[in-house]
Amino acid sequence: MSCSAPLVDAFNRRISYLRLSVTDRCDLRCAYCMPEKMQFLPRKEVLSLEELHKLALAFIDRGITKIRLTGGEPLVRRDVIELIRALGRKLGEGLAELTLTTNGTRLADFADDLAAAGVKRINVSLDTMDAALFQKLSRRDRLSQVLQGIAAAREAGLEVKLNTVALKALNEAEIPALVEWAHAHGHALTLIEVMPLGEVEGERVDHYLPLPAVREALEKRWTLTESDHRSGGPARYVDVAETGGRIGFITPLTNNFCASCNRIRVTATGQLYACLGGAEKVDLRAALRSETPDANLAVALDEAMRIKPEKHHFRIGRGLEPAQPRHMSLTGG
Ligand code: SAM
Ligand code: SF4
Hints:
Layout: E1 17-21, H1 49-61, E2 66-70, H2 80-88, E3 97-102, H3 107-116, E4 121-125, H4 131-138, H5 143-155, E5 159-166, H6 175-184, E6 189-193, H7 211-221, E7 224-226, E8 236-240, E9 246-250, E10 263-266, E11 271-273, E12 281-283, H8 284-288, H9 293-307, H10 328-331
Parallel strand pairs: 1-2, 1-10, 2-3, 3-4, 4-5, 5-6, 6-9
Antiparallel strand pairs: 7-8, 8-9, 10-11, 11-12
The structure holds S-adenosylmethionine and iron/sulfur cluster.
Iron/sulfur cluster (SF4) binds at residues 26, 28-30, 33-34, 71-73, 103, 125, 138, 329.
């Protein structure tokens, strides 16, 4: 039960959703996300599992009801399942939902434990079902593990939603097949526009695919009807009559969705970023490691509410700097 003041920002948005990155490390190197030779953080800078737990409890106390663990790849963090079990015990005690976003490579090992810890739904990133393209996009040959992971999650009773970054001239032609496969296996699929976060090799703009054009193409193939389904996030959904499934669209570049933002992000080093696309942050690690962590955390969270910006300022174009120098894998996608 929440006993402290809820988190409400300067634009009167009630913040109830925390995306908590448990590591910046990853076993894939998706080309739009990070360079092949990504420099990961020294381990001592990263919060311990105990610190992550303490932080999560402080957020729950301030009215956070949904926590999504992310990264980097959350399932490569050693003993992460201990944190998940500990947070699972808060379900029904202030926390309404505990979930995670994963690339799926290690899901086959974890699916049963996640379900036992109280996780009901997860997001799995899947940009292609073509093994060669998977290897090209992620620079690793892991498609079969990911598909096994998705199957294991389903068998464990987890609801699996797929996330697909739409990439011009890469997975563009495959999107209808991905949607068909997802819906045939009972998964909703959300398409995401590539965002300018952190330097990568090559120009993201070369593969930036605006989703309104994708939607138009899908409309020629299927009957799409606007859905009033909401996941509490920026996605907008349509139902597909022919497949009986749902497609989400996350359009940070073509359509600004910030007015209803209910979320904040914390990196694995305890930096709270008030907006994915902004530089506004407060250092929760300093608060946690101070002499009076509880009091300093309370002050830091109030400060975060004060500085949360009204909206992001993403732009994408040739030669433009990334909107933020930090990678999605650091902020926690
Ligand atoms: N490793 C996990 C995964 O891939 O699901 C969790 C972290 S990953 C950063 C979270 C999501 O961010 C993934 O769906 C990924 O495709 C997406 N992502 C990463 N970099 C992105 C970018 N520059 N633009 C848009 N989406 C991005
Ligand atoms: Fe890793 Fe996820 Fe980034 Fe891919 S998108 S490199 S899986 S953190």
